[in-house]
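hey so u asked for the seq, here:
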Amino acid sequence: MAIEEENLDAGLMGPAAGTLDRLSTDLKRARRLAAPVIQAAERWELRTLRQRLSDLAGALGEASAAVQRAQAELAALTLPTSGPAIEGWVREVEQAAREQHLDLKGAFPEYEVFPLTVKAELEREQVVVGHKRLATLRPRPLMAQVARDVKRLTNSGFNAQRFMRDLVLCHGYVRATDPKPGRGASLAKILRLMQLGPGTYSRQDFIFDIFRLRRESNLVYGDVRLVFLHARGAPFFIPSARGSAEPFTTLELQPVDGDA
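ran it, structure tokens below
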């Protein structure tokens, strides 16, 4: 049985949920009534103004009262971070994710909707989605925004050659500073090197780039083939085209001709 969003929001927001809904309704009504009045005032349409101004005055009065109620309740509002109210909010977030066909993984307060991380920071009245901080707390519009961001990232351009170049350069540096024999370079060390560049580059960004590289490229750069392996250490779980995640810890460069 579907859980009504209004009830869950009321649990998270308390009485402020209903107050904000009434505020939204009153402001929309005032905006609707204001449009013809604005036009009539600009055109000196006196009969229209006489007919419409009293309705608008009533709507503005109701909206003003709604604003005052909202201000008072928001001043006293502190969002919960545990308990039944949060459990209800989480269920509604999960339901909203299903409605958007999102594969939401994890548990409150940290989730993943590949390729994004979603972290609820209710004590700061925000949800961090990837590198963005969203003030949207209502589950349905929140998950709708997450779905748009996922689609934008999934459809964004990707320069496989440039990413392979960066991987090869970082691989060379790691191997030059690693006394252990072999061809492999730790993906964790490669990520740390790539994070030295400008901007923010997270572990999730790295995983997404490797996912796209394996999906869109033959993994050949110049005279070497990039091979991702699972050895010792904490792995990076890279989704495959089939949907399952594969663990990798190491990048190895192998000659394209297969010579040792």
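The CA atoms of residues 87 and 155 lie 33 Å apart. Confidence is low (pLDDT under 50) at residues 1-9.
lmk if thats what u needed
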